[in-house]
Structures are given as structure tokens and as C-alpha cells.
TrEMBL record:
Domain of life of the native organism: Bacteria
Lineage of origin: Bacteria, Pseudomonadati, Bacteroidota, Cytophagia, Cytophagales
Chain ranges of the Apiosidase-like catalytic domain: 29-357
UniProt protein name: Collagenase-like protein with putative collagen-binding domain
InterPro entries: Apiosidase-like_cat_dom, Collagen-bd_put, GH
Record-annotated Putative collagen-binding domain positions: 360-451
PANTHER family per UniProt: ENDOGLUCANASE (PTHR37836:SF3), LMO1036 PROTEIN (PTHR37836)
Coiled-coil spans in chain: none
Length: 454
């Protein structure tokens, strides 16, 4: 059955036109909050998680994956060079492992050529690759991970420098140090990550500056900023808010947003689609689109420079012939078409529909006392009060402070499930306090009120 599914999807593979052009590595906006393209236009980070992309795909499968994600509106794919799932010993789809020898490192050129090829293919499709040089279990395994542990203070710089030189000319690359491991207390972990980052940064070309961040484990109320915020190599912060549906993820974004020096921040690993909630499918079931969508909108409205999506079957490139990790429900080819994978484009379109670089979070817009639960209503607006967006995750009625906005305002309801907008039908909004009742309420009935000057 699994072979039939794979053959079916490859038979219907067609060459979609590119959905976007990569002009060069993304950059930090002038206000240090967001990303932009080299020409200065906004870049809203909308990433997919495909950790095993280089390790578990053929060329044809990688092409199908990238074309599908590009058509769905993704512009970043997060993937790992030295993969999590026994990436040093289990060969890739062409029988190659990363190294011919580990002591000292002797690189297998055929393995790395395939990574080069897929990065270039992603560029053709308008997709940036957020590349982790290694998964964190190659530094230390903790309570899980295949390892082996190969990185230390003697070779981390060398590996980073070798890989940095190899990829220094790529136009669609973003570096991500780390890999689901936080530096341990009373260890040299932080120094090893710093050395690997320095090895890469020392290869940087002034005319092709590639951004860099760090992928942590969940570490409330902060992630990468806990250890590396003031490091010069860390261009923006990344969080992992984890795989439980009941966390107020906007608080972790709020934490980083308030730090100095100013740096963009985003959630690089939230609750995945069709993932066991809190890794406990038996008692808590699997994630659903409602929870995933709420996390995404919360984070972005709290000031994130974008959002990462993940699907539990896709990150591991699961097929029926492979050992499942934590109970994926479908083969990855089928899972590419899950509901939230087709809804993320609505968030990106919404955020790019208004003045982008002047957007700020504003928790004071909602006047009601709120609990940090799934009903939490959150607002974002323009610095000059030219627009306001309010996200209602469950359609809860709240009082809004509209006193600082124009006397004449246009208001629309935006449906995050479909991307459809329609006119607000209540009493006309004025520059005063106003109680707002969304079109429907209850779990899964989330709405965005978009208010702008006429």
C-alpha cells in the first residue's frame, strides 16, 4: 500500500511554476523587528518543518515536497544536515552517510552534494532553507537521541567553518545553530555552539549576508535569548513552544519582544499538526487545526516576525515502511494536504495586507480582564493608528479601546479558516470604547476584526 501511495504521488507530479523569486538572503528590517527581502519589501516568515528532508527523500520526492509547499504559500523550510534519526550511520536515500571517517572528520562529498542540490532546488521554487548544521544529539543525547556525540570544543569551529565555506554563496539560506538541545548547566555546551556559529560567521561574505539563529528545546519563558541574545552571531531569536495545546505561547514572544538589543523573534517549533498532544495520544488525543491556528495568530499578533508550521508525519518523512516516531497517522505524502497546511497562507496574506514594518502588539486594546487560556483575545496595530487587528480565538465578546483611532473607520471580519473577509455588520465603530461580538463563538470559531481608516 505504501509503495502504491508513493508511486501515485510521483506519477501525478507536475512542474508547478515558481511562486516567488529569491533575490538573496533575507535581512533584518531597519526597526530590528521583522525580516525583509534585499529590495526592502517585507518578508513574512512562513516556514514548514522538514527536519529529515536531506536524509529521507529522493530527488523526485524532494521536488514534489518543495513544489507542494511553495504552492501552499510557505517560503521557508527548516531542515537538518546531520539528521536526528540516526543521521550519521543510516545512509540517505542514495546510500551515502555524511562522513567517511569521524576522527578526524572526513567528509563524504556525495552526501553533501545532495544537500547542495536540494538547497538549489528550493531556491528555484522561491523557498529559503533554514539549515541546522546538526541535530543537537551530536553534541549530547540527553535522555533521547541516536547520537553519537561527536562535537566538542576542538572540532565545532572546524565543522562550522567547512560548512560555511561550502554554502557561503547560497541566496536562500538561513543558519540555525542548535537542534532541540539547550545548553546544560555546568557544561561547555554554550561554548561549543558559539564556536560552531563563529566558524560559520567567519566565512560570511559582505555581499551575501546570511542570518543566523538558534533552535532550542522548550524553555519557558524564553528560548534562544536565554543563552545567546547578546551574542553578535544571533541575528534573531527562535523559540520552541512545544507540542501541548494549552500553553499561552504569546507570552514567550512578548518576553523576547521586550529585550534589548532589539531582535526579531518567532516560534520555530510549535504544536505540529496531527501530533500527539503533549506526547500522550492515549489520554489527550492528537492536535487539531483549531489549536494550531490559535497558536500561530497569537504569536504573530504578539510581535513575532512570522511563524513556523509543522506536521508530525512530514518532519520525519514517515512512510509505512519506516519505524514511526510517536505515532504519525498518515504517510508524509498524504499529510502534505492537511487542513492547516492549506490555511497558513491566509495568515501571511493578512499580515502583508497592511503597513508591515510599523506594526506593533498592543495588549491594552482589550479592556477586559483576561486569563491566559484558549479564549485570550489579542490585538496588534500600526504605530500611527492607521489599522488595528484583533484576534478572537473562540469568538469571545470583549470590550475594545478604540479611542485613539480615526473617528471614521472601516471594519471587516476576516475568517482565518478560509481567508474570506466580509463587512462588519454591527453598530458603526467610532473612536470610543466598544463591545465587540464576533460572528460566532465556541472552540474553532476564531475571527480577526480588521479595522482601518477609510
Amino acid at each position: 500500500m505504501d509503495k502504491f501511495i508513493i508511486s501515485f504521488f510521483l506519477l501525478i507530479l507536475i512542474s508547478y511554476p515558481s511562486t516567488g523569486q529569491v533575490e538573496g538572503p533575507i535581512r533584518i528590517s531597519d526597526n530590528q523587528r521583522y525580516f525583509q527581502n534585499p529590495d526592502g519589501t517585507p518578508f513574512f516568515w512562513m516556514a514548514d518543518t522538514a527536519w529529515e528532508l536531506f536524509h529521507r527523500t529522493t530527488r523526485e520526492e524532494a521536488k514534489y515536497y518543495l513544489e507542494t509547499r511553495a504552492m501552499q504559500g510557505f517560503n521557508v523550510v527548516q531542515a537538518v544536515a546531520l539528521a536526528e534519526l540516526d543521521g550519521l550511520n543510516t545512509p540517505n536515500s542514495y546510500g551515502n552517510t555524511p562522513f567517511l571517517s569521524l576522527n578526524p572528520f572526513e567528509y563524504n562529498e556525495k552526501y553533501w552534494e545532495y544537500i547542495d542540490e536540494i538547497i538549489d532546488l528550493a531556491e528555484e521554487k522561491g523557498i529559503h532553507i533554514a539549515l541546522l548544521p546538526t541535530w543537537g544529539d551530536k553534541l549530547f543525547k540527553n535522555t533521547w537521541g541516536e547520537g553519537p556525540e561527536i562535537f566538542n570544543e576542538k572540532n565545532a569551529y572546524q565543522f562550522g567553518n567547512w560548512l560555511g565555506k561550502r554554502l557561503a554563496n547560497k541566496k536562500n539560506l538561513i543558519w540555525v545553530i542548535g537542534g532541540d538541545r539547550n545548553p546544560r548547566k555546568d557544561s561547555n555546551d554554550k561554548e561549543i555552539w558559539n564556536l560552531m556559529a563563529k566558524g560559520i560567521k567567519d566565512t560570511a561574505k559582505p555581499d551575501n549576508p546570511i542570518l543566523m539563529t538558534f533552535h532550542p528545546q522548550p524553555n519557558w519563558p524564553a528560548g534562544s535569548s536565554t543563552w545567546f541574545h547578546e551574542e553578535r552571531w544571533l541575528d534573531f531569536n527562535m523559540q520552541q513552544t512545544g507540542h501541548c495545546p494549552n500553553q499561552p505561547t504569546f507570552r514567550i514572544i512578548e518576553h523576547d519582544y521586550q529585550l534589548l538589543p532589539l531582535k526579531p523573534t518567532l516560534d520555530g517549533e510549535p504544536l505540529y499538526e496531527e501530533h500527539p498532544n503533549c506526547f500522550n495520544a492515549k489520554e489527550l488525543g492528537y492536535s487539531n487545526p483549531d489549536d494550531i491556528r490559535r497558536i500561530m495568530y497569537w504569536n504573530v499578533f504578539a510581535g513575532a516576525a512570522g511563524q513556523t508550521y509543522g506536521c508530525h508525519a512530514v518532519w520525519q518523512m514517515f512512510t509505512l515502511e519506516r519505524k514511526p516516531i510517536n505515532g504519525p497517522l498518515k504517510p508524509w505524502q498524504v499529510s502534505l494536504d492537511l487542513p492547516m497546511a492549506n490555511q497558513v497562507k491566509h495568515l501571511k496574506k493578512l499580515m502583508l495586507s497592511q503597513s508591515y514594518f510599523t506594526r506593533i502588539p498592543d495588549f491594552s486594546i482589550v479592556l477586559d480582564q483576561q486569563e491566559d487560556d484558549e479564549n485570550f483575545v489579542i490585538a496588534t496595530r500600526d504605530l500611527n493608528h492607521t489599522f488595528l487587528m484583533v484576534y478572537f480565538p473562540t469568538g469571545k465578546s470583549v470590550n475594545l479601546d478604540l479611542s485613539s483611532f480615526s473617528e471614521i473607520m472601516q471594519a471587516k471580519w476576516f475568517d482565518p479558516r478560509t481567508g474570506v473577509s466580509f463587512d462588519y455588520s454591527g453598530t458603526p465603530l467610532r473612536n470610543e470604547n466598544k463591545r465587540i461580538n464576533p460572528p460566532s463563538s465556541g472552540k474553532g470559531n476564531d475571527w480577526v476584526l480588521v479595522v482601518s481608516r477609510q
